[in-house]
Each structure stands twice: as C-alpha cells, then as structure tokens.
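Many introductory courses stop at the sequence. We go one step further.
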Amino acid sequence: MTTSAVRSADPPGTLGTDELASHLRALGIRPGDTVLVHASLSTVGRVGGGVRVVVDSLLEALGEAGTLVVYTQTPDNSDPSRWPVTRGRSVPVSEWPGLRATLPAFDPALTPSYGVGVLPEEVRTRPGALRSGHPQSSFAALGPAAARITAGHALNCHLGEDSPLARLEELDARVLLLGVGYSVCTAFHLAEYRVPGQGSREYGCAVADESGRRWHRYRDVDFDASDFPALGDAYEALPERPVSRGRVGAADCRLFDLAPAVAHASKWLTEHRPRWSSAD
C-alpha cells in the first residue's frame, strides 16, 4: 500500500454510503419513498465525506423513483422587530426603517438556508434540486416529485394548505427525524392551520418580483412548537406503533408517515392547547 493510500484511508469506524444506506433501509426507508428529512449530522458519528455522503446514502436508499425533501427556511429575512427571535440579536428601533429598505430579497437559487444545519444546504445546492418560492419557509427537493412538491408555494402561507407540506401529505410522504426530536418536526406546523381558533400574527420580509425588490407584509399562523415534544411522544405511544425507531450510524432516528401524524397532531393540538380569544 502506498503512503498516499494510507493517508487517504478513512480511520476505523468511519461510516460510508453503503453502510448508512443499509441503516436507512433497516429503519424502513423504501425505494420510491418521498421523505422529508430533518437531521443533526453531529449525532451520526464519523462519516467519510461528511454531509455529501449522508445525502448520497439517503438518495441510494430512496432509489431513482424516490424524492428527498428538506426544509430550507430563511427566517433571518424578517422584520427587524423580530430579530431577537429570528436572528438571536436585537437592533435599535431607529435602524428598523433602513433595514426594511435594504435587506436583500429572497432568491430561491441563491439565498442560503438559515438555522437548519448543513444537510438542507447540501440538498439545495445539488444539480437538479428545486426549491419552493416562499421567502421565509421554503423547501428543497431532489427526485421525480420535486416539481410537484415545490410549485405554488403561496407568498402568504408559510406551512399550510398552499405549501409543500400539504403536497407532501397528498403524496403519502414520510418524515425522517435523523438524530433530532419532535421539536423540529415541521409537519406538525401543518396541523396548526387546522386547529380551530389558532392565532395569527403579522410577518414581514423582503421579496423580489416583476416590479423589483419590495417589503412584503402578510398575516399567517402564529406558530408555537413548544408542545411538539409532548405531541410527538403521545403519537409514538399509540397502540398501533406508528413510529419506527432505529439508528443510522450513532444517531437515534424516527421514521413515520406524514399524513396520519398530521391528522393526529390536529386532534391533539385542538384538545391540548388553550383556545385563542376573539380579540387575538
């Protein structure tokens, strides 16, 4: 063996595409599936090739007929008044008008995702990937169903009936939580739209259209993921055992069908959340 070969060899215990794909199949991923993935790659362990190999393994397990979907949110494109929540820092009120006038507009082809880890960026930038057009809550997809999933994402609808989540529901898609918990399960937000009396709030962001860059304000659901862990645990504990548990590398993973999970979430949230008053 040459010196260069020794240097390029991965250390013992390093995971590769074939092994990770095998773990995904054992968890329940099937060729032809459409899968929405939320992931923390640091939980997987040592992977030769990093995020590129993880995405390769997902695509291998899904096969040519399968579609890989990720959440490529850009909540940093938001009103400066919300930056303590969306960016983790505040700016003086005196700077808000100038920021609203100069914040770069969302570009589906160029704007990087924010706050969702490295896997969505790897998928978003792959040749052939498509991305939905929402300036704050976009999704990217690779595979035969990508166009249907990402088309028609309404500007005034983050994660509801006119978003890729509803298209994923129609396609009998599945959700893979790879090393993460239910707190980041975006599919549960679709259920919030179906909770009677769910509150709403105003959002603002920079968009570009045929008229040029502009500041867009709209009203949509006031999201709250604080009870998603309890909701997920309740769903996982159902007698029919709708959630498959297993490991991909060292990561604790969950795999489940999106549509029945959203149906359960709608009922659970309706029963467990306090009703909003008519003044909200």
